[in-house]
Design goal:
The protein has a domain of 124 residues: Winged helix-like DNA-binding domain superfamily/Winged helix DNA-binding domain (Arc Repressor Mutant, subunit A, Orthogonal Bundle). Helices cover 62% and strands 7% of the residues. The protein contains 6 helices and 3 strands; from the N terminus they run ααβααββαα. A 3-stranded antiparallel sheet has the order 1-3-2. Strand 2 and strand 3 form a beta hairpin. Keywords: DNA-binding, Transcription, Transcription regulation. One of its GO terms (molecular function) is DNA-binding transcription factor activity. One of its GO terms (biological process) is response to stress.
């Protein structure tokens, strides 16, 4: 059971988001929104499981799925941990911890900036590039299977992604509004 599996609308008449008149459209939106959150949570966990299974199948059990995805998202760039946080939406302590582990395991190279000694730039080593290729191949294999199955045809994944970008902007605006 995921963290969000317990989400469900349970409001008293006074706290009911639809008000005392009961706007069914708003209730439906709430239900659909909560269901979407549950699906997103499950999809993320399943993706991590797929990455974990792939590396176990290949006999590379030293990486966590989060570390493998961090390597994949790092790509061929040379960036700071802060840039990784902003690009990959990783939490600060998680990025720092995982980068330290990846450096120790030889997947990532790090070097202090010449101009700002507090800043550390990271890039993949050849070993990290091999991991990136493995994850990329896994995702490509999934894309081929999804394309062949027609699962993503209705609605087109492009339209679904467009909708999620709108939700992302809405959430971002809510965060800015709080501060």
């Amino acid at each position: 059971m995921t963290r969000l599996a317990v989400l469900h609308p349970s409001f008293s008449d006074q706290a009911h988001p639809a008000g005392p008149d009961g706007d069914e459209s708003l209730l439906r939106t709430l239900h659909d929104y909560l269901e979407s959150l549950q699906i997103l949570d499950r999809l993320h966990r399943l993706m991590l499981d797929l990455v974990k299974d792939e590396f176990e199948r290949l006999g590379q059990g030293d990486l966590t799925p989060v570390q493998a995805l961090l390597i994949y998202n790092l790509g061929d760039a040379e960036v700071t941990a802060g840039e990784l946080r902003s690009r990959g939406m990783y939490q600060g302590s998680n990025v720092s911890y995982n980068l330290k582990k990846l450096v120790q395991m030889g997947y990532v190279h790090h070097q202090r900036s010449e101009t700002d000694r507090r800043s550390v730039r990271v890039r993949l080593t050849p070993r990290g590039e091999a991991v990136r290729e493995t994850v990329g191949t896994l995702f490509a294999r999934h894309a081929v299977g999804l394309h062949a199955s027609g699962v993503l045809d209705d609605p087109a994944l492009r339209l679904v992604n467009q909708q999620w970008r709108r939700v992302e902007r809405f959430w971002s605006e809510q965060i800015r509004y709080i501060y």
